[in-house]
Amino acid sequence: MMRIKRFRELGVLIVLGVIVIILSIVSPVFLKPVNLVNIVRQTVEIGVMAIGMSFLIIAAEMDLSVGSIFGAAAMLGALLFKNEVNPTLVFIVMLLAGAAIGLVNGTLVAKAKMPAFIVTLGTMQIFRSIAYAISNGQSISVFPDKAMNSWVFGLGASVGVIPVQVIIMLILYVIAHIVMSKTKLGFDIYATGGNQKAARLAGINTDRIKIICFMLTGSLCALAGMISIAYLKSVPTTAGEGREMDVIAAVILGGAALSGGRGTILGTFIGAIIMSVVKNGMVLMSVPVFWQTGFIGVIIILAVLLDTWIGRKERIS
């Protein structure tokens, strides 16, 4: 099993390497430092949300509302900033709002026994509507100096050439890796996704584990929204739209199984980088936006096919 896991991560790294080589040949701009920094910065939003999605998919669940949580939390934060609410309080409120949304999703899935696909498909629409209602359908920008000069907006700054948001993302991945590989919570998440009935018999409260995963996902989406505000200094009405597909693709590309019980945080990190590299490459090659979306769909299908093939190999071995 460990050999297959390492093979999977090595395979994803090889795919990333091949993509980088191809893009560096096709576009001379690709390997320029400015573009590389841009790629890493673009990875942050997908990467942070993908941590939560990794927890969920490993636990055999999924959240289609992550883009809407991102957008609703960002709009809420932007509105509070505009009304000169204390920036630290805004940050806390955003994280709590994300956790609360996750609690709603998790409770409906774990306690009401509703399929996560249906629940989060519904809440995706609900919280997208809430985001529009908060902003009255308008983008929010031009924040007061109190907010702009706070540590919260410092999340969009850089330490030398390294963006602060990248440092935060890397710290989060280290913490997530420790949680999933060294703690009881991580073990319980793997057990819940691997065999829920056996996990229950072993004394694991699988309902609580799922709710925790949904709440962590919600908070991480809100954090990604805060990072976006700090960097862009504005929140468009379409904030977060379509992000759910990018996030799910990153996790699946990283080797997590949709059936649950399998996946690594390192794999998710590599998957998130691949998504950003591919998107950046398509922009550099002037690929039309409508084809970019279709190409991401192809990537998702190929990733699932690969997951299915590896799953068969694991069962045979």
Automatic annotation (TrEMBL):
CC annotations in GO: plasma membrane
CDD domains named in the record: TM_PBP1_transp_AraH_like
InterPro entries per the UniProt record, alphabetical: ABC_transp_permease
Chain segments annotated as transmembrane: 12-31, 64-81, 87-109, 155-176, 211-232, 247-277, 289-310
Molecular function GO terms recorded: transmembrane transporter activity
Keywords of this entry: Cell membrane, Membrane, Sugar transport, Transmembrane, Transmembrane helix, Transport
Principal location listed in the UniProt entry: membrane
Protein origin, superkingdom: Bacteria
UniProt xrefs under Pfam families: BPD_transp_2
Annotated compartments: Cell membrane
Bilayer topology term: Multi-pass membrane protein
Protein name as annotated: Simple sugar transport system permease protein/ribose transport system permease protein
Species in which this protein is naturally found: Murimonas intestini
